[in-house]
Amino acid sequence: MVSHLQRKPLNEQRGEAKIVQEILKRDSRLQYVEFRLIELEPEASYEETLEGDECCIVALTGSITVTEGEHSFEGIGTRESVFERVPTDSVFVSGGKSFRIEGVTKARAALCYSPSLTSLPTKLIKAEEVGTEQRGKYQNRRTVHNILPDSDPTASSLLVVEVYTEGGNFSSYPPHKHDQDNMPHESFLEETYYHEIDPQQGFLFQRVYTDDRSLDETMAVEHGDVVIVPVGYHPVGVPDGYTSYYLNVMAGPTRVWKFHNDPDHEWILDRQ
Q1: Alpha-carbon gap, residue 225 to 242, rounded angstroms
Q2: Is 47 within a domain?
Q3: In this structure, is residue 150 part of a structural domain?
Q4: Number of domains forming the structure of the chain
Q5: What is the pLDDT of residues 86-115, one digit of tens each?
Q6: Residue 125, beta-bridge partner list
C-alpha cells in the first residue's frame, strides 16, 4: 500500500501541457507548500495566473521560454537530464502576476509554490548564480544546489534546493526536522521531495516520523515520486549502485531554515 505521504506520477494531459505531478494544499496535509511538475513538447505552452502564492519555475530539463508581463526569458535551461549534475536556470514570479511557459525543446519544468507575503520583482535566477556546496562525510555525503536559500531575498516565503546523493549514502541525515515555530532554535517549514533515480529502475527509502510516532511512515520511493513532509524527521537512504536526485520545496511562517536533529542520532556528527 502506498503511503498517504507518497504520490506517484499523474501524467495527465491538460491542454498543451502534461501534468506529471501535482501536490495541492486542498488534497494534502500541507498549508504552505504546493508543487507541480509539467512536461512540454516544443512550441507547446502552459499559462497560469498566481493569486495568493508566489512561484519559482525551475527549468528542470530541456529548454523553455518564460514570459511574465514585460519580462521574457528565452531558451533557459542548461541540461537534458538532472544527472548531468550542473545547476539550471529558474524564474521567480510573485503573487498576483500571470506567466507563460513555452517549450523550446521537449522540456520539464518544476513549479514550486508558497504564500506570497509581499509583491516582489520577477527575476531570472541564472544557473551560474546558484550556489553549490558539499555536505556531510563518511556515508552521509551529498551535493546541494541552492536555488532559493534563506539567504537570498528574491522570495518572500519560498525555499528551493536540489540535492544529489550517491549510492550507499544517506541524506537529510542524521534525521532532522523543522516543524516547530520556535526561533531561534527551530523554524516551522513544510517540505516536498520530488525524486529522480539513476538508473530509473532503482528505488530508495525515505522515512517520515515524529518524536511521539503519531506519524511514522517508511516508503520505498521510485523514480518520479513525490514525498510530502508536513512535519517530522525525514531521512533518505540510497541503495548501492543508484544515484538519487531530489528537488526540495519548503515554506512556513518564517523564511528561515533552522532544523533540529533527532537527539537519538545526533552523536553521529561527533565522529572523528
Answers
A1: 16
A2: yes
A3: yes
A4: 1
A5: 999 999 999 999 999 999 999 999 999 999
A6: 90
**Model confidence at 272: pLDDT above 60:** no
User: Could you tell me if residue 88 is inside a domain?
Assistant: yes
Residue pLDDT, tens place only, 250-262: 999 999 999 999 9
Cell of 84: 548531468
Nearest to 243 by CA among 199, 182, 179, 178: 199
Task: Quote the pTM value.
Answer: 0.97
Q: How far apart are CA 37 and CA 168, in angstroms?
A: 28
Residue 1 lies in a domain: no
CA distance 87 to 216: 33
List the CATH number of the domain containing 96.
Answer: 2.60.120.10
